[in-house]
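User: Here's a chain of 161 residues. Predict its fold as tokens.
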Amino acid sequence: MTVRTTTLCILAASIVMVQAQPPAPAKMPLPPPPPPAQKTTVKKTAPVPKTAPPSGMIVSRASIALDVVDREPKDTGSVFPPQVKRLYCFTEIKNGAGEEIQHRWYWNDDLINTVPLGISSDRHRTYSAKTIVPGMTGEWVVSIVRTTNEEVLKTVHFQVK
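Assistant: Prediction complete.
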């Protein structure tokens, strides 16, 4: 055999071997791309405050007074002169035995004082006092709050002017 014949034989064998291989699998089409995500707009608003479930405890009376005598308010009002030295927040609670409330005193929207008050009977009269320093004129609020669940039972608004 000559070199030329050997080369032809090798080429013929290569061709036969290439043809003898199984055909390459057909390419499967790719699935379509997912649709573009839709842009969502999130509104940024203040969170909705949780409202506490009603407790059965109620404020049957609440007032601001110049004095409390024998657990009863004296000289109640909603506007007091700037010379006032001390004011009282009187509260009567029903159905609250064994609970605790707080009087939260606010002056011009700033929390000034928090006074915890225990409730010992189902009809309980209690009060807290706040010394009014000269210059503390303006809008005042006392929030009466059930301590265990932060339920605002009542708010009392008044002014020192």
